[in-house]
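INFO batch 0412 | record 1 of 1 | parsing
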Amino acid sequence: MSEDSAGAGAPQRPDIHQRRQRTLQRITTFTDGGVAIALTLLVLPLVDFADQSTARQSVAQLFSQHLGDILSFVVSFLVIALFWRTHRHLYEQIVDYDEFLLVLNTAWLMAVVFLPFPTARLFVETRLRTDSAVLYLSNMLVISLLALAQVWWVNRHANLRASSSPGGARALAPPVALSVIFAVATLVALAWPTAGLLVLVCLPLVQILAARLSRSPRK
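INFO prediction complete | emitting tokens
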């Protein structure tokens, strides 16, 4: 029997690398869809305000009456967008995955999708409660810690990331900075809920500084 006929009769071995690449793409697509749903759910409490009972109110009155709710929506939206940005930067450097990374990513996504609940809790309150503020901030802390865990895991396993991707302490700087901010905000909220939420104002500055620290030095 010729080699050609033997090769034609043998079953073709699947390309494992291509299959894993497709699965990795499905993971990122599934995660992006979950984040998009969480962002959409944030606006639903605001939609409830625009009912027939507010038909006689002007837009300015409506915004003035629900200013705190609108600010909570904006902050939560921007924070989730920041989490997604950090997640996107990590997965742009990943070339493979393992089961533990999938577990961390699934837990991260669950915490992100849960965030609209403590956000809605803040919406319905006429007076800011300590437990609501702590729940809101601790939820963000869990998200940031799970993002840090993913970066740490990929950083430890060089086979999961591209050879040109940054590693070491520089890769950990942005998620560590976020985790520290949310940990401080949660602790402050235990004594003063309003001040704990105001700590989030420092997020853009801290993220910019962390991004600069994470950049590789020019040769």
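INFO post-check: Residues 1-12 have pLDDT under 50 and may be disordered.
INFO record closed
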